[in-house]
Every structure is written in C-alpha cells, then in structure tokens.
Amino acid sequence: MPIKILIAEDQRLLRQCFKDALESESDINVVATAADGREAVLAAERHKPDIILMDLAMPNLDGVSASKIIQERLGNSKTLILSLHDESMKVSGAMRMGVKGFISKDVDFEELVRIIRAVHKGEAINSPFLVDQRINEEKGIAIYKLTEREVEVLRLLVRGLNNNEIAEKLCVSEQTVKKEFVTIFNRLGVRNRTQAAVMGVQLGLLDGAAY
C-alpha cells in the first residue's frame, strides 16, 4: 500500500514541486496539500495521512501549533518538519511534541524520499539533512566530548539567545562565540544553529538538565 503523504507548505510553487516530485514514486501517494496550518489540521483529520511534511513557518497557524493539534487528534500520523530558517526555539518546540524529525528544505530529493520511507517503517536513519529526535538516552554530552563552555553556549542557544546575547552572558567577544559554534557543530555533526539547537533539546538542555 502506498505511503499517504500530506504536504503543508504556504508557497504554492514549492508545494506543487513537492507534490509532483513525490508522486513520481510508485510507493508514495500525496493525498492532500495545505497552504496554512489550519488547512493542514483539517486535511489531516480528513485524509489521515501516514506522513505529514509540515512547513515550520506558515500563516494562520504555524507548523508547531498545527503539529501539536494533529499529534493530539491523530496519534498515528508521523510529522516531519520542513524549514529553511534559523528558528531554533520553534524547531525545539516542535521536536518536544513528538514530531519525527526536522528536515532542511535544501535536502536532495532522493534523500527526502529515503527519510520518508524510513520514518514510515519506524526505522532509525542518519542524514545530514535530518535531526532525528530518537537519540539514545545513553548518549549524552560525554559522547560528543563537549567542554563545559561549549555546553553552556549550546544551552544559551537552545534558550533562544543570539550570538551577541550569548557573548554578553559569558563575558566574551562575539567572535569567540562564533568560534565556539564552529567546534560545537563539528562535535555534534550538525550543519547550522537550528540543528544544533534541536540536538541541545534532545540532550536535555532546554530544561537545564543533560543526560
């Protein structure tokens, strides 16, 4: 049976491109599209998709809020968040509500399909475009060899502070903070601030605790 997909994306051209590309796969069926969060919730209730590709920033109801409502009403649908933006707190909130991962919109199409199939089957998957929330709890700060300063920088990022605010908090220069992030990205195996923030949430830094 084909994987039923709901695409929630406010940009019409991008929404259509996603739809056309995914429907070229024999095992995928795009059952509905939505231009905003409210439409996404209604479409999900009507079509009960297996996978929802949810844009993070949408009008009327943002992706995080829409994901929360869908998760409460349709526990069997699996949501993957899409975004181009560095919106660490929104992504963090989404990951805490049970979505299956955050995907950068610059993902290769083949990689997107691979992720969709793996998530549908309940398989773990590693991808440079995906931050998966299923981090083994035995893995924590130690396995990534983060220093105390790097942990603190990451913690402040998770709380939504920008580089200048982090520098003021730690009484260092903004350039020093930027260098810290280069090291943090390398240690965590992520590509940007958003992915690092999501990893920080997984490690318990949003609540001030770490595994």
Question: How would you sum up this structure, described in words?
Answer:
This protein folds into two domains: 130 residues, Response regulator (Rossmann fold, 3-Layer(aba) Sandwich); 61 residues, Arc Repressor Mutant, subunit A (Orthogonal Bundle), CATH 1.10.10. Helices cover 47% and strands 15% of the residues. Helix 4 runs parallel beside helix 9. The longest helix has 15 residues. About 4% of the residues have low confidence.
Specify the structural class.
alpha/beta
Strand arrangement, major sheet:
2-1-3-4-5-6
The low-confidence runs, each spanning 5 or more residues with pLDDT under 50, are: 132-139
CATH superfamily placement of the largest domain = Response regulator
Biggest sheet details: 6 strands, mixed
Helix content: 40-55%
The radius of gyration is 18 Å
CATH architecture of the largest domain: 3-Layer(aba) Sandwich
CATH topology of the largest domain: Rossmann fold
Q: Strand tally, please?
A: 6
What separation lies between the terminal Cα atoms?
Answer: 40 Å
Strand residue content? 5-15%
Order of helices and strands: EHEHEHEHEHEHHHH
CATH class of the largest domain: Alpha Beta
